[in-house]
Specification:
The chain has 102 residues and is an alpha+beta fold. It is built from 4 helices and 4 strands; from the N terminus they run βαββαβαα.
């Protein structure tokens, strides 16, 4: 089976830049035009049978715009931490909206 793995988020629990953080990485990420911004952890796996996400970070709305995550129905959450599963709230809103339009 052939599959493709894309890391769509690799920041820490608060993303980069993290709120109120003054470290070198976060300061660099705040500069205009910086490419140092990173969203919270999430991985997209694509196979010939479909696509699924590993983790559902609170940044899923931003990530779905950048990586076209529409139509994904399968998810794997590795553990119960805010940065790995609180995107479920975003997904619920999306699916309620989609169901209302059908």
């Amino acid at each position: 089976m052939v599959f493709k793995v894309t890391i769509i988020g690799s920041g820490g629990w608060g993303g980069i830049p993290a709120p109120f953080c003054r470290c070198k990485a976060c300061q660099s990420a705040r500069e205009p035009g910086s490419k140092d911004n990173r969203t919270r952890p999430e991985i997209l796996v694509e196979t010939e049978k479909g696509r699924f996400l590993i983790e559902i970070s609170p940044d899923i709305r931003t990530q779905s715009s950048r990586f076209d995550l529409s139509g994904i129905l399968h998810f794997l959450i590795s553990h119960w931490h805010f940065d790995h599963m609180y995107g479920l709230l975003e997904l619920r809103s999306y699916y309620v909206f989609k169901a209302a339009r059908i």
